């Protein structure tokens, strides 16, 4: 089971209740709003003299338009290509020079940049990050080199990876209107036809303090951090952001299916159902919390239901995974993915999955099972509370989905109230054929490696 950030948050906060009761003070978190619209969130953690500095832009692949898919990710690459003050390639060198590590990542919902340094070097990296928020300056030659890097990334991670190809086709089939149907890396044809001006336009449109959240976590004083942020980010001018179109996904009216033929050793099956996500301002909605717990019932530990039945008992698949994100900006899927065991068919795996789901819908789960799942997740995830970077990630990803970091405590309380009957109810309500998309990987023989003799 993929453990998403909010699920980790629930576990950490659940554990924190016991820590606080024992006399340990919770981490202090302070929020500020600058005049130019930039939000600053400071999480104090004085256990080590380090600090994580992150800048989150609420602009990801879901904000792209047809013909320019992948531009959010391309711009992430170009952000390292220099400003008037910092030459191309110098950003990473300067961070390394102060003993720090840095990187960036693009998501469907956001793009984020981070550095982790010794606390006395915070101003150094903050100055660099603020500079490229408003002064990015790359030439066409740099763009032409980097777009080739991105296309090669797509070839390696998607086109040469059967699982990635299957997931890409699943998303494009499941969604009709939502931009979630496009891959974050972009379609190859769009990358081949992308211009430097496309990346510059994306930067000019979305990279502004009024579309950014700065998260600083670690051994810091909030007032000192605020002073530094006002110094470096405060002078950056705000501007009007592009209009965001809702692009509401229309209701699905029946099963969708897609088949992908690609070189692979085994067939794969993915079944994905349309399900609700938690929405800002509607924190009391029960179903998203119950769906989160349903993922753990099915695939939350080694002897969870699907692994026990499909892998250990029936031996119809080599592996099985369940995926659901309760918190996101766009529509969500409840996904079950499997890889066939040798000699087994996709039809057998689908029948086994359906039988396991029907058993759960009919018989439900025990209260003791649900409690055991919570304790198991707790024991597996608690160590992550020691990560300063993980705390910054938790805050930023929650904010980007439209929630506040302040909501997490309430979400936890709500999660603890979910009953076995409510978990059973969401399985009955949403895991039905009307909202189902099935993707099948039909494995093709791999081409023999070309002989190097005579070359």
UniProtKB/TrEMBL annotation:
Q: What top-level branch of life does the organism fall under?
A: Bacteria
The UniProt keyword set, sorted, is: Signal
- Does the record carry Signal as a key word? yes
A Pfam family recorded for this sequence: Peptidase_M16_C
Q: Domain Peptidase M16 N-terminal spans what residues?
A: 41-184
Molecular functions (GO terms): metal ion binding; metalloendopeptidase activity
The record's SUPFAM superfamilies line, in alphabetical order, gives: LuxS/MPP-like metallohydrolase
Q: Where is the Peptidase M16 C-terminal domain?
A: 195-374
* Biological-process GO terms, alphabetical: proteolysis
For this entry, the protein name equals Peptidase M16 domain protein
User: Which organism encodes this protein?
Assistant: Polynucleobacter asymbioticus (strain DSM 18221 / CIP 109841 / QLW-P1DMWA-1)
């Amino acid at each position: 089971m993929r453990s998403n950030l909010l699920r980790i948050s629930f576990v950490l906060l659940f554990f924190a209740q016991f820590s606080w009761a024992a006399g340990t003070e919770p981490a202090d978190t302070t929020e500020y709003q600058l005049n130019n619209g930039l939000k600053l969130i400071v999480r104090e953690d004085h256990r080590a003299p380090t600090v994580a500095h992150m800048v989150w832009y609420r602009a990801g692949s879901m904000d792209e338009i047809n013909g320019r898919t992948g531009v959010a990710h391309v711009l992430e690459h170009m952000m390292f290509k220099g400003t008037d003050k910092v030459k191309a390639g110098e950003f990473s060198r300067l961070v390394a020079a102060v003993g720090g590590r840095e990187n960036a990542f693009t998501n469907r919902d956001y793009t984020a940049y981070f550095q982790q340094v010794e606390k006395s070097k915070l101003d150094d990296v903050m100055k660099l990050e603020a500079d490229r928020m408003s002064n990015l300056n790359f030439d066409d030659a740099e763009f032409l080199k980097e777009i080739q890097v991105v296309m090669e990334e797509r070839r390696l991670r998607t086109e040469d990876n059967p699982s990635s190809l299957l997931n890409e086709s699943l998303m494009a089939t499941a969604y009709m209107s939502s931009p979630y149907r496009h891959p974050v890396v972009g379609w190859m044809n769009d990358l081949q036809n992308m211009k430097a001006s496309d990346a510059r336009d994306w930067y000019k449109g979305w990279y502004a303090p009024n579309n950014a959240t700065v998260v600083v976590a670690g051994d810091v004083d909030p007032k000192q951090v605020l002073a530094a942020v006002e110094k470096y980010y405060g002078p950056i001018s705000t501007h009007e952001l592009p209009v965001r179109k809702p692009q509401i996904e229309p209701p699905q009216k029946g099963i969708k299916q897609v088949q992908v033929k690609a070189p692979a050793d085994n067939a794969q099956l993915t079944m994905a159902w349309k399900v609700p996500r938690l929405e800002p301002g509607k924190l009391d909605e029960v179903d998203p919390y119950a769906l989160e717990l349903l993922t753990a019932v099915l695939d939350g530990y080694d002897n969870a239901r699907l692994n026990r039945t499909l892998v250990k008992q029936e031996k119809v698949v080599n592996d099985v995974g369940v995926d659901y994100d309760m918190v996101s900006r766009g529509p969500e899927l409840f996904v079950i993915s499997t890889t066939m065991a040798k000699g087994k068919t996709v039809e057998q795996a689908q029948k086994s999955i359906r039988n396991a789901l029907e058993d759960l819908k009919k018989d439900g789960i025990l209260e003791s099972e649900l409690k055991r799942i919570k304790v198991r997740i707790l024991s597996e995830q608690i160590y992550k509370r020691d990560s300063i970077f993980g705390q910054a990630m938790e805050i930023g990803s929650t904010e980007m989905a439209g929630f506040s970091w302040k909501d997490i405590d309430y979400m936890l309380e709500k999660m603890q109230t979910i009953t076995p009957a409510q978990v059973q109810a969401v399985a009955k309500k949403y895991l039905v054929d009307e909202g189902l998309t099935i993707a099948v990987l039909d494995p093709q023989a791999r081409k023999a490696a070309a002989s190097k003799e005579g070359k």
